[in-house]
Amino acid sequence: MTGQRTLEDYLQRYAETGPLALAVAGAIDAVASAAVEIADLTGKGQLAGILGVATGRNSDGDLQRHLDIRADAIIRRCLGRIPIAALASEEAREAEICDPQGRICVAIDPLDGSSNIDINMTVGTIFSILPTPDDLAGCFRQPGTAQVAAGFVTYGPQTSLVLSVGEGVDVFTLDRAAACFRLVRVGLQISTHAEEFAINASNRRHWDAPVRTFVDECLAGVDGPANRDLNMRWIGSLVAETFRILTRGGVFLYPSDARPGYGDGRLRLVYEAHPIGFIIEQAGGLASTGYQRILDLSAQSLHQRVPLMMGASHDVRRIEELHCDPLLIASTTAPLFARRGFFRL
Ligand code: AHG
Ligand code: MN
Ligand code: MN
What is the pTM assigned to this prediction? Predict the structure, then answer.
């Protein structure tokens, strides 16, 4: 029964399924404890001195904000209480070897969507949990399919924990009075056809033809190949976009583009695309680079970026078709044969 069952009950039952599950449950519990603290800190905003930009930049060159750094420290402290073999974070250049006897490795984006902090919009925490491989040095070079669990927290009107241990996607809401997460949704499924698309449209002039063609098909709505009208959203926070898509469907694109440094897009494979791709696939959606399944990819470097197109299976398949068949681009954008007659009116 939802609403009453706590995350603690849920994890206790899962932990009984074996020693790896026990280790995974410990890591999820630690991230959830950190999330309670981060939710409180995020909610205080300027009163806690967490707005604005800190001094440094992270290893991917992003400006580090105070809350990025504070969230990273809180999660590290909470995970430090359990035996994990290695920890990777967006906010640290290198992965940290912790307890080599640990059964699992954890990758985190401590604060996703941090450019939204100062404007009081939803931000979040993303986590990926992998089994410890024989060669610990390769722990974060495993394919996304190796993940045993993944999830994210949204710090918005509700503080929600979205989780999959490989048996579907479940959602917990923070009961602030009791300081515990309660199960509110089980087995989320994404509808096959999107009614909303999400992309940062300001980059249109930098996109490759397949992405431009797909977005044009969305904009053409019922008058074009999509045969339906679509709405558009862009929040600038991957966790918020993902939560919306899990809740009411949709398709999200952060493609590679022609801007310097965006040849592989903006999102990072290990601690953004892999965990989000795991959740999306567990909910019946797809996650792709346009050419390849995200979960089939293995990182060559810890902070490597990857194009991410994810959500409704029909629409992600259309995006892949457009990437893989250039003739499709020509046929759908031929100016002479515009839909309304021989010549464009
Ligand atoms: P982060 O704050 O962890 O760097 O992630 C921000 C990401 C993602 O959350 C969001 O979808 C995207 O950056 C927004 O990018 P633009 O600002 O280029 O639109
Ligand atoms: Mn992020
Ligand atoms: Mn981040």
Answer: 0.94
